[in-house]
């Protein structure tokens, strides 16, 4: 039995975000603008306005991992007929599944996180996520902690084997900062050069300061509707979800075998095969690529794993062909986690939708599909769970 | 901040006992001979619940390495290195390289277990370059 097709079953009709820039300034000044639910509510109001629909149209609710399902529904006043909890990428897939099965027609995907003002720790004695991923805490006796260190260990071996240098890796931070400089929603907008990147301090060598994501507060909401209904109800042209894919590597996860010895490549390749087949398009059709970038090195791993360049060639590809706006494949066109906002993949979906719509102003990417259509590919590999989504006109 | 601490499930306890005796043991599957890390209730390869704790040869080679420049724990003041080592028995483990460091790439360098301590004096299985 093969996967039942989820191609073009659901479409994004509305997106919304909290005020990353304004809230971050207030948090840095010692204020607490909102908690996770407050940021989610800000984004929810914005998404309803973007979609041009009323709250009562919503009959499905998925909340992010940082929110309690019932309390979120209570605060937003939603009594759905179907609901659940998921991270950004799985929330999109589950919304399509619910729509395909008839359990829901208009699903709100709601995320909020006060991680900065609540001083959430991603490394050290209180490392977040250890209850879900044993590898985040198991090696602490040897001083090995923080997800950044896991990626530093991975990039070191990858770089030694492929010739992708630290300077090549700097292309990611530089390109994304340039994109962020053109994005009014981005937190870090001052352009940097490769020299700035190389001069920054190491956090966990070989990764430097600019290889690490931001930590900030915020909220994101997407509204996904059944594709036919989306065309009738939405204020703007719906953005179709053309395909999804997923493949997980759990064997050897804590001892870091799939991470260090395979760079998660088998999961990415299986996920890529699924999503490209479902969508009927491939890397050459994409106008932009959004990559979950808690650390910069996600980008070279994904460029090779999803077929955007030849295996072993990513250092040259990033340096010569280019991953910035105007490059061979523009990556994280809003600035990503490194420079826009660390919304754990949620804001990447918003950027993908806005790029497909053509709403991105100075950072807008060009159409590459037939006619004036645009496809934007999103992918992530959080702890070896490769997930992929293709958005398009 | 605080000191780092080991994860101590019921399956980890015997491993740390063996480390305190300077004789690192891991579980080996009684049915398919696969070595297991981290310790656990059954063999991930063949699902057998039967295993025996056996001493490691202590030999392996470096698969990757990093150097911490930021402090996360009281008992780990930077800079310090962390290495990933592929043991001769098969498992990939995390440790620290003590003593002389290699010139150039560390990957593929043969190492052997050398018991050492963190800055708080807690005993750990660490590694040193082998001849």
UniProtKB/TrEMBL annotation, chain A:
This is Lipid-transfer protein. Pfam families: Thiolase_C_1. GO terms for molecular function: acyltransferase activity. It comes from Prosthecodimorpha hirschii. Residues 267-391 form the Thiolase C-terminal domain.
UniProtKB/TrEMBL annotation, chain B:
InterPro entries: ChsH2_C, ChsH2_Znr, NA-bd_OB-fold, Thioester_dehydratase-like. Residues 17-49 form the ChsH2 rubredoxin-like zinc ribbon domain. It holds the Pfam family zf-ChsH2. Residues 53-114 form the ChsH2 C-terminal OB-fold domain. This is Nucleic acid-binding protein. It comes from Prosthecodimorpha hirschii.
């Amino acid at each position: 039995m093969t996967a039942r097709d989820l191609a073009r079953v659901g479409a994004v009709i509305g997106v919304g975000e909290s005020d990353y820039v304004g809230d971050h300034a207030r948090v840095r000044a010692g204020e607490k603008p909102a908690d996770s639910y407050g940021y989610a509510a800000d984004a929810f109001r914005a998404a309803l306005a973007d979609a041009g629909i009323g709250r009562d149209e919503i009959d499905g609710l998925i909340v992010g991992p940082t929110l309690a399902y019932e309390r979120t529904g209570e605060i937003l006043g939603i009594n759905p007929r179907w609901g659940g909890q998921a991270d950004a990428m799985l929330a999109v897939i589950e919304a399509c599944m619910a729509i395909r099965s008839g359990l829901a027609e208009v699903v709100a995907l709601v995320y909020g996180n006060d991680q900065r003002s609540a001083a959430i720790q991603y490394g050290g004695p209180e490392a977040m996520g250890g209850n879900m991923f044993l590898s985040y805490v198991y090696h602490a006796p040897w001083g090995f902690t923080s997800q950044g260190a896991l990626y530093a260990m991975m990039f070191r071996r990858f770089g030694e084997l492929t010739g992708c240098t630290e300077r090549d890796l700097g292309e990611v931070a530089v390109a994304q900062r340039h994109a962020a400089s053109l994005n009014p929603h981005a937190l870090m907008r001052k352009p940097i050069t490769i020299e700035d990147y190389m001069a920054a301090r190491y956090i966990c060598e070989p990764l430097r300061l600019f290889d690490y994501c931001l930590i900030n507060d915020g909220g994101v909401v997407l509204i996904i509707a059944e594709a036919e209904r989306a065309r009738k109800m939405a204020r703007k042209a719906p953005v179709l979800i053309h395909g999804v894919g997923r493949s997980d590597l759990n064997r050897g996860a804590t001892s870091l075998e799939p991470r260090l010895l395979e760079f998660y490549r088998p999961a990415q390749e299986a996920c890529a095969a699924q999503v490209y087949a479902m969508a009927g398009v491939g890397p050459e059709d994409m106008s932009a690529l959004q990559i979950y970038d808690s650390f910069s090195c996600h980008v070279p791993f994904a460029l090779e794993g999803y077929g955007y360049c030849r295996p072993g060639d990513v250092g040259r590809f990033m340096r010569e062909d280019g991953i910035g706006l105007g490059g061979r494949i523009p990556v994280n066109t809003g600035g990503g986690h490194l420079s826009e906002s660390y919304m754990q993949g949620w804001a990447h979906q918003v950027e993908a939708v806005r790029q497909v719509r053509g709403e991105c102003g100075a950072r807008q990417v060009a159409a590459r599909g037939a006619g004036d259509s645009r496809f934007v590919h999103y992918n992530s590999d959080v702890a070896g769970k490769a997930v992929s989504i293709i958005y398009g006109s | 901040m605080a000191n780092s601490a080991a994860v101590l499930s019921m399956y980890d306890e015997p491993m740390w006992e063996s480390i305190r005796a300077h004789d690192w043991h891991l579980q080996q599957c009684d049915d398919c001979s696969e070595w297991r890390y981290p310790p656990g209730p059954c063999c991930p390869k063949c699902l057998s619940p039967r295993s025996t704790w056996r001493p490691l040869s202590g030999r392996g080679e470096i698969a990757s390495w990093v150097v911490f420049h930021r402090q996360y724990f009281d008992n780990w003041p930077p800079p310090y290195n962390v290495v990933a080592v592929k043991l001769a028995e098969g498992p990939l483990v995390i440790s620290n390289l003590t003593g002389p460091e290699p010139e150039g790439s560390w990957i593929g360098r043969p190492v052997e277990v050398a018991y050492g301590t963190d800055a708080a004096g807690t005993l750990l299985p660490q590694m040193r370059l082998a001849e």
